[in-house]
């Protein structure tokens, strides 16, 4: 794999991980943060430090998000570094006066100390359900998230059956990538999942762009001449079922690590 392909593969896997995190957050009731991640994945918001977000997600700890005035951002980052708070910043070109900050819930109290010192207005909620992206106005009947294309109405937790369905499809995409499926098809399938989750969260439809239209054309063309991700996975499973046992690749069981073993003599 050449460097360019390797970089694209890494980005796709990162997007896969963030999408899975958004599904799980929505299932747990943290719909605000889930919606923020979907907005980032759609390109409606830009994130500063994707590595920082990835590291936060990998830790598997509860996260919270809060809006911060842009002119206070540098002071907050400086204070966060001194106190050892990991954070990721999300920007919205349509709302340049505010950035969204993602941190671990356990750091909320220390973040509030920093905000108080720098004279910031927003207080960080210590529970994710009380926090949300900038542009969200809380109310007794729900909230709306303005993004220039509509509003978002807060639903309850993501339904268990939909959660299972989306996670299953994400698992299929991951398996397809492992066995060499077309990255473009995997990305198109991943995009469909993001849009379905966005619909379930009550978010406006994805904003159209020239790049998106081109991707849709490629997806349609792919259907005519190429097999879908699910079809590829089906073929892989079919071949595996007819392969001799000693030729089948060992697949690690979740939660277990396969150690190198010496060949049998």
Structural class: alpha+beta
Give the N-to-C terminal Cα separation: 34 Å
Query: What form results from the Cα inertia axes?
Result: elongated
| Residue share in helix | 40-55%
Strand order of the largest sheet: 1-3-4-2
Strand content: 5-15%
Low-pLDDT runs of 5+ residues are 129-153, 253-262
Instruction: Output the radius of gyration.
Output: 21 Å
Oligomer: single chain
Instruction: Summarize model confidence as the mean pLDDT.
Output: 76
Count of DSSP E strands? 6
Count of alpha and pi helical runs = 9
Order of helices and strands: HHEHEHEEHEEHHHH
Q: Major beta sheet, specifics? A: 4 strands, antiparallel
Compact description:
This protein is of the alpha+beta class. The chain contains 9 helices and 6 strands; from the N terminus they run H-H-E-H-E-H-E-E-H-E-E-H-H-H-H.
